[in-house]
Amino acid sequence: MAGSDPQPFDPRYFRRQDESPDALFYAEPRLTVHIDDGAIAAVTALYRELLPADGEILDLMSSWRSHLPEDVRYRRVIGLGMNAVEMAENPRLDDFVLHDLNADPRLPFPDASFDGACITVSVQYLTRPVEVFREINRVLRPGAPLAVTFSNRCFPTKAVALWLATSDVDHARLVATYFFESGNWGDICMEDRSPRPKGAGDPLYAVWSWKRNEESG
């Protein structure tokens, strides 16, 4: 049954070259963006489509920029990440929480707290992704989306082995599998959102789904 196994993969797939505590790696603030302007615009366009205006939004694995559309008002945006200095510099966050999802995939929020969530160019670092996606589902309200975006860049020593060993197309399928295996998601969408003409800048890929409505089971 989908969602019955906390981690339905061989654990070796999620080893990293650098297995030292992530808190050490992320201790130094990195006040820089990790994708170019075209890819950032693609992220922002997707979030405009999926994340509800005036909603309560959870920005997971957050940093100093959330790439949310500047002209859209949200009731509250909460960041969850590894560096307080970075998140304190993020103008879109109303509040933030320091939390290491690899050390503890449980989210420090009550059930059904948010109207939408996003993971921006960071999913490749999750070592327990199915557990994390299950937790995200728990803290979302029925019908709320989770949008996951990524490019072809990463810190290779902290990306999991399975990510480094597979292609961009495989990455989208992998993230879709995280949704499927964690359970209680509706239709899973995958798209290449790279700026056109393709190859003119950083690629951008997206995978998203919505928490099932309670009535639909």
Q: Helicity level, as a percent range? A: 10-25%
% residues in beta strands? 15-25%
What is the count of distinct domains?
1
| CATH architecture assignment | 3-Layer(aba) Sandwich
Please give the radius of gyration in angstroms: 16 Å
The average pLDDT value, as a whole number, equals: 92
Largest beta sheet: what is the strand line-up?
3-2-1-4-5-7-6
Name the CATH homologous superfamily: Vaccinia Virus protein VP39
**Largest β sheet strand count, sense and barrel closure:** 7 strands, mixed
The best one-word shape is globular
- N-to-C order of helices and strands: HHEEHEEHEHHEE
Q: How far apart are the termini?
A: 14 Å
- Work out the number of β strands: 7
Which regions have little confidence, pLDDT < 50, spanning 5+ residues? none
Total of helices: 6
Structural class, from secondary structure content?
alpha/beta
Describe the protein's architecture and organization.
- The chain is α/β, with parallel strands linked by helices.
- The protein has one domain: Rossmann fold (3-Layer(aba) Sandwich), CATH 3.40.50.
- It contains six helices and seven strands, in the order ααββαββαβααββ.
- It has helices at residues 22-25, 37-50, 84-88, 129-139, 161-164, 168-182; strands at 56-62, 76-81, 95-98, 116-120, 145-150, 189-192, 205-210.
- A seven-stranded mixed sheet has the order 3-2-1-4-5-7-6, with helices on both faces.
- α4 (129-139) packs across α6.
- The longest helix is centred in the last third of the chain and has 15 residues, at 168-182.
- The radius of gyration is 16 Å and the shape is globular.
- It starts with 21 loop residues before the first helix and ends in a 7-residue tail after the last strand.
- The relative contact order is 0.19.
